[in-house]
Specification:
This protein is mostly helical. It has helices at about 1-20, 25-40, 50-75, 80-100, 110-140, 140-145, 150-155. Helix 1 packs antiparallel against helix 2 (about 25-40).
Amino acid sequence: MLSAYTWPCLFVAAGVLFLRRRLSAGHLVALVASFSGLVLLVGGGARFELSWAFVLAVASPIIYTGYILVGERVMDSVPAMPASAVIISGAGLAFAVLAAFNNQLALPPTATGWAVALALAVVPTMLAISLFPAGLPVVGGQRPALLSTWAPVGSDGPAAPPPGTRVRTIP
């Protein structure tokens, strides 16, 4: 979760530093709000421990920031569908190789499992990954980066209990 909130801040900051972008008041407010979310996520009880998980958690938003910055420049001259096919194929191959090395590569055993896997592959993966590069030349990366920090509100918000609902822990 921490890396999901780190990359928008890094992206906007990198755009200002390296691409000489101007930061509007609205973008500045969104950036401060996003960074405040990072502070709330880490809190005062965080403990530093160097591990592969930590290295990957730090590397992930940095790599994604670079990917979006390069994508902004490249997607002006490259069609979105072939670029998306390369991105999706590369990610799929990388995950398949990692899963095979960890003995976690398993095909869905039922028709329902295949249907769920196919639906997940098409809607949130192919559709989202294809539309994002297509939109970069139109709106740039700054707006989607800052708006992405609202994703948990859209996905977790509907799962929140309505006001007045009594919430208790499960023993």
